[in-house]
Amino acid sequence: MARVIWFALLILTSICLYFYKPFDTLPFSISTFPKKGKELVSPDALNLLQIHTNYAAAAYCSKQNLSSWTCGYRCFGNVTIEKIFHDEIKGAYGYIAVSEENKTIIVAFRGSADVVNWIYNLQFAQLDYEFPGIEGALVHGGFYHAYERVKGTILWTIQWLMTREENSCRGYDLVITGHSLGGALSSFLAIDVKRYILDPILSSPTHCLLPFKIHLTTIGQPRIGNHIYAKIIQTQLISQTSPLKHKVTRITHRNDLVVHLPPSKRGFVHHAHELWVKNKDQSFFCDDIVEGSEDPVEDPECLAGARWYTPGAHLSIWNTTFTFFC
Ligand SMILES: *[C@@H]1O[C@H](CO)[C@@H](O)[C@H](O)[C@H]1NC(C)=O
Ligand SMILES: *[C@@H]1O[C@H](CO)[C@@H](O)[C@H](O)[C@H]1NC(C)=O
Ligand SMILES: *[C@@H]1O[C@H](CO)[C@@H](O)[C@H](O)[C@H]1NC(C)=O
Ligand SMILES: *[C@@H]1O[C@H](CO)[C@@H](O)[C@H](O)[C@H]1NC(C)=O
Question: Which GO terms describe its biological process (predicted)?
Answer without folding.
Answer: lipid metabolic process
